[in-house]
Amino acid sequence: MPPIHPKRLTKRTPYMLFRHVKIIGIVFLAPIVFISCQRHFSEKCVEAHLAAIKAVGYPISLEELGNWKSLSPSTMHMVNTIQSASFSDTPENVIKTISTARLNALENIFIQEGLSTNISDAWDSLNMTGVLDDSGITVLRKHLDSVSASLELLLGTSDIDIERFPLNYLQGYDLELPHLVKLRSASRLLRGAAYMAALDNNSERAYRCILAGLQIIRSLDLELVSVSQGVKIACNGIMFSGLQETLGVAEYSDAQLVRLHHAFLRGHDQFALRNILVSERVFGLSAYDHVSDFMEFEGIMGRSNLPKTMSVLVKMADIAGYYHGDREHFLDVMDKLIESATLPYGEFSSLIHRLSGQFDRSLFLPSISKEFLTFLSEFPAAVATNQARMYLASTACAIERYRLANGAPPDTLTALVPAYLPAPPMDPFDSQPMRYRREGTAYTLYSVNVDGVDGGGVAGENAREGDLVFTRRP
To answer: How far is residue 61's CA from residue 96's CA, in Å, rounded to a whole number?
Structure first.
């Protein structure tokens, strides 16, 4: 082998160094260029997607959500009522005074519930059995006395639609909703007041309490927040129980039953699920603007064995554009859900089941889309449960009207058509007629509930087990 000439080696060195530098540059720059191009392409896709959402009239930002008027007929009625009809002849200062007084009443009811001894036991007893023993009645009477002025104010102003509670939608997923716990306390109070009025043979007051309980939460129709709608569903359930507990004890008139019938029907909004999904899509988009903050807020980092390390990785991944793909996936799935939100429960739940495998596509980093989609997958059942309760309660009012006119409940629900109902009510869970069984002067009216299994009108130990039952005692 001939010897290598030193000058030849020296001449090649600059070239080899340049080549090495170029290779190293390519190795380091190629991923950066690739990520930048991918991020740019992803952002353009998202921009086009958001433009398509806006084109059909849906909000995409927190500011737009705060100004968005749902296309729901019930909420549009509420908006029109608030903006014009209710206060057309009422001075603005009077409206403000009533609004302030009601807010103070809600605050007082909430505080007194926390101070009342054993009142939570009384609520538990009503939830479990629908009746109170002597000690429970004593506790409830004492509690009602402690908030009598606030209770009377709610009853006296329940027909007045005060403006919605002020919300700062710009807070995004950190939105504060302090009025929700107060509304739940007020619903429990009105249910208890209706029960006591029925025991005291004061049917007029029992009727006013139940009607007030249904009307006081109408302001939540305008709150496009999933938590608010969940509380509305819970409060509707409280008044559903209140009607069961008072029927057969209070003697409601035909006119009162007609009004209760319509009030319970208004408790269901056929667009409720769609509105929840639309609003949560906006909150989800807000979360992608602050990925690390959102995950810290939700406690997602704490689920990791190495939370600090995970926090650093999430921040680096966000900078690198990792969550752009997750956002696109979130928008794609939400499109499918929103487009199908008005389908019957059975069809929509089947869609949720098919899509559930797509909720989490991340390999090792936490996914925002999974957090939102998993949370939202519980709402179809909640909305259908609310619909079933409202149909059961409104149908019970129609049955009671039939009883007043004929001296006994009907043998079948078809006997209510057309004088008391336009058609027999349908069960939202299986799209079959509601089940009804007359038992002498009493009756059982029920839905098959979430599991879709007809249990013969037997309720389960929790809301997702057994049938959803409305029982009218003899």
So the answer is: 30
